[in-house]
Specification:
This is Gamma-glutamylcyclotransferase. With about 100 residues, this protein is of the alpha+beta class. It has one domain: Roll (Hypothetical upf0131 protein ytfp), CATH 3.10.490.10. It has two helices and seven strands. Strand 6 and strand 7 form a beta hairpin. The relative contact order is 0.30.
């Protein structure tokens, strides 16, 4: 089992059902030294607004999110789901949990 820190779309139960056919379990957590930046991604019917984590010069900047428990198979599905504007990296969250997170590519 892996940990995936989500601060955006993947927290939606509707998206989880579409992507995994189940609701993920997780716990609230925080990622420090990153901040959120607006991002526009071209989708099938036009541009859509999202956010992406980017490194911050201030190590106390937090991003609030959820650390989900996720299988390696489901993690591979997320790799396909996320656009090439994102890349997956491992981070240590406030709780001390090591998790994957998608940041700006």
């Amino acid at each position: 089992m892996e940990k995936l820190f989500s601060y955006g779309t993947l927290r939606s139960k509707q998206i989880q059902m579409q992507l995994f056919n189940k609701i993920l379990t997780g716990t609230p957590d925080q990622l420090f030294a990153y901040k959120l930046k607006s991002l526009q991604i071209e989708e099938e019917f036009g541009m859509a607004d999202y956010v992406v984590a980017v490194p911050s010069a201030d190590s106390s900047d937090p991003i609030h999110g959820i650390a989900f428990n996720i299988s390696t198979t489901d993690l591979a599905k997320v790799d396909i789901f996320e656009s090439n504007a994102y890349k997956r990296v491992q981070v240590t969250l406030k709780s001390g949990t090591v998790a994957w997170v998608y940041i700006e590519n």
